[in-house]
Every structure is written in C-alpha cells, then in structure tokens.
Design brief:
With 412 residues, this protein is α+β, with helices and mostly antiparallel strands. It has three domains: 232 residues, 2-Layer Sandwich (Beta-Lactamase); 110 residues; 38 residues, Arc Repressor Mutant, subunit A (Orthogonal Bundle). The protein contains 15 helices and 13 strands. The strands form three sheets. A five-stranded antiparallel sheet has the order 5-4-8-7-6, sandwiched between helices. α5 packs antiparallel against α9, α13 packs across α14 and α14 packs across α15. The longest helix is centred in the first third of the chain and has 18 residues. The chain is elongated. The N terminus is likely disordered.
Length: 412
C-alpha cells in the first residue's frame, strides 16, 4: 500500500514533463501521454494540498468513504466514477492525437455554439488577462470546440488540452472541471491533486455546464491555469459567463417576442432574469435555465412546445401589446398562484435604445410619470422634433405624446 501511495503522490514539477506518442494496443491508433516525476511543492497552500493528498489516499488506496468536509463532494463522486471506469490514478493521463480532419469535423458540428459563445469569451478574456488562466469551450461530450486567453502552446500541458477536437471527458482524462461539470451538471472548482491522474495535478480549474434553449446540456465552459494560485472565485465567474452564453443561445433562436422575467421587487434587465422567447402565435420556442426554475412545465428536449397561456394566466396578446407601450413592464400571474414581473421586448427592438431605456427603469428612483416623460422627450429629440416619428418609435399615438408633454398639436 505504501508503494502505491508514493506513486499517487501529487507533488508535480513543470520542468520534467515529457510528451510521447504511444500506440494503442487495441486499435493501433496513437495517443499522447504526459508525465512528470514528483518534486516538492511550495508551502503557500501546503495545508490544502496535504488535505487533498490525504483524501486521495483514503479513496484511491484504502477505498474508504470520506468523512464530510474532507473534499468537495463532486470531486469524491468523480474519483469514484473514474475508479469504476477502470482508470488508474498512477498511470499518466493520455490525450488522443487529433487530425486536421477531426478538428474540422468538430468545428463544423459545433459551429453555432462556437459562434454564439465567441464574443462572450472575448470579453471574458479581459477579466482573466492577468491571472494565467485561459478558457476552454467543449461540447456536451467534453470535446474541445474553442479556446480563448493566453495559451502557451510551447508548453505541452497547455497545448495538449487546447487542441480543437481533444477529448477531455471524464472517461478519457479522469477528474477535471470539464468532465465533472458535465457529469454533475453544476459549476465546480478543482485544485491540483483533486484531478484524478497524478500527472494532471498541475492544473487548477473552474467549470460550468451550458444548457441550450430546450433545457438540454450542450457543452461546458472551463477556466484552467497551470501551476497557478488557487482562485475558487473563478467558479462564480465561469458560472456567470456560462449564463451569458446560455442567454445568447436562447436569443439566437427564431422568435417574435422576448420576455424577461423576475420576481416582484427585483430589477429587470440583468443576468438574473429568466428569459423566454415566443413565436407570433404565443408558443414558447426557447427558455434559459433561470426561466425554467421560475416557470413550471416548460417543454424540454424532445417534448412538444408549450403555449404561453398554459403557464401564465393571461392571453398572449397582452404581452405583445405591452411590448409597444412606453412602460412595458407587467406583473403577471402564474397558474401556481405566484406572480412575476415581465418585460416583453419585440425582436426588432432587442438591440435598440428603447430596450436599454426600459432596462434602466428599475434603477431609476424618480416617479414613474417623470421617467415616462423623460423617455418621450428623448424619443422626440432623437426624431429631431418629429412627433409622428417619435410616436411610431415608442408605439404610442401622437395624441399621447402631446398629452404627456403637456403640449397641443399646434405647438411645435
């Protein structure tokens, strides 16, 4: 047992890594393995690493259940799954060789996810620019489809895990944030020896699953660093960024109306909103995960669509009409008896200034009448005094514009 325990030792050295191609005895294909002998680790987080090492010995050598609090529960569950797969922690992690054709097929199959996520990943890069962490986007099978951030491709530990088409699933490379997030379907954080294979203990990573417009998992987002300071706060950042990608996926679906949802008393227009999309007849075409927590009985993958009247106690036309009002925010009943705030936004106005103004309503302490008047003044100014054009942009009549501004139609 002690010999095996020494093999499982998680202290790693950057300089001793090597890369080699090794034939697969079963099918003759090649894969790359990375390995490095153990060397002492720094004292900065030695207590944390000693705790991880103790947990590894209990689970992987002694095959014991861990006492509560020894390690994150998702880590222990992942270790147990890896052992059930027949993986051996003292063996070096291996990465299949990815051909150009495989990479091209991966990109083609995941084109929509990649295109939708890329602008968000570029903004994420600004948050992690000085941390030595980088982003990896995978599909639902844990295969890399895109990367972002400062990646040192001269370092095999970075290069091998950031190649498009690389399989980083739990069955392939053991416990990582990627495989664990996809298995547990929740945000996770892993540090060093919490990774299953001893030679992957140089990594620290945060991961969050991505859910598509139909509620099914479509992939995950990972932030990984190599021999870096532990930053568990990245779990929050990766989960927040994943939510933005999920919202973008929802809004990329064909729809006529987007409805933002939140509980009364909360400000509409933030990442905390539920989002549903409707077609012209009121059928729900997409919903983000937050909306699925708020609104029961939304259709999931493979189920027939649900009409909005089946979840809200109002006619769907009310939502479409409200989208063209100066103040479109509604309080709507659920059939469960609860009530929600709703902000309907027509598809054509989602990126327009009116939507930005509506989102700002909840942050304005002025009386609603004053806010409404200010919005009308702004619309008239943007129309260069053309009341008819301003009324058209606001979705109200000319007479309403004049009345709200306290002017007569003759006054110019």
């Amino acid at each position: 047992m002690e010999d095996l325990y020494e093999i499982l030792n998680l202290k790693q050295s950057t300089n001793d890594w090597c890369v080699r191609e090794s034939p697969d005895s079963e099918n003759g294909s090649a894969h790359t393995m990375i390995s490095n002998p153990s060397t002492p680790v720094g004292s900065g987080n030695s207590l944390r690493l000693e705790g991880i090492e103790r947990a590894r010995r209990a689970v992987m050598v002694d095959r014991e259940a861990l006492p509560a609090g020894w390690i994150a529960p998702w880590v222990e569950r992942s270790w147990q799954r890896c052992l059930q797969y027949g993986l051996q922690p003292h063996h070096p992690a291996s990465f299949d060789t990815v051909t150009h054709q495989q990479a091209s097929r991966t990109l083609e199959a995941n084109q929509h996810l990649v295109q939708t996520a890329r602008p968000i990943l570029e903004k994420l890069g600004r948050a992690i620019v000085n941390t030595r962490y980088f982003a990896i986007l995978t599909n639902r099978d844990g295969v890399v489809v895109d990367t972002s951030g400062p990646i040192d491709h001269s370092d095999p530990r970075a290069h091998l895990i950031t190649r498009i088409g690389t399989d980083l699933s739990e069955r392939s490379v053991g416990t990582t944030a990627i495989g664990t997030a996809l298995s547990e379907l929740q945000p996770v954080w892993l540090h060093r020896g919490e990774h299953f294979f001893s030679n992957t203990a140089v990594y620290s990573c945060a991961g969050a699953p991505l859910f598509g417009p139909d509620g099914a998992c479509v992939g995950m987002l990972d932030l990984t660093g190599i021999e870096v300071v532990e930053r568990p706060e990245l779990k929050h950042l990766v989960a927040q960024t994943a939510s933005k990608i999920e919202n973008a996926l929802v809004l990329s679906q064909a729809h006529s109306l987007m409805v933002r949802l939140n509980w009364p008393g909360n400000t509409l227009g933030s990442e905390a909103d539920g989002i549903i999309c409707l077609d012209a007849d009121g059928w729900i075409t997409a919903a983000n995960p937050i909306a699925r927590q708020m609104v029961p009985n939304l259709a999931t993958s493979g189920q027939p669509p649900v009409h909005v009247s089946e979840v809200f106690g109002i006619a769907f036309e009310v939502l479409f009409d409200a989208a063209h009002r100066t103040d479109p925010v509604l309080e709507i009943p659920l059939w469960t008896g609860l009530r929600l705030q709703a902000l309907p936004v027509a598809r054509a106005l989602e990126a327009g200034p009116q939507y930005a103004d509506h989102r700002a309503l909840g942050n304005d302490s002025r009386p609603l009448k004053d806010i409404e008047t200010a919005l009308i003044h702004k619309a008239v100014d943007e129309a260069r005094g053309n009341v008819a054009q301003a009324a058209l942009a606001l979705g109200i009549s000319r007479a309403t514009v004049y009345r709200k501004l306290g002017r007569s139609p003759q006054a110019k």
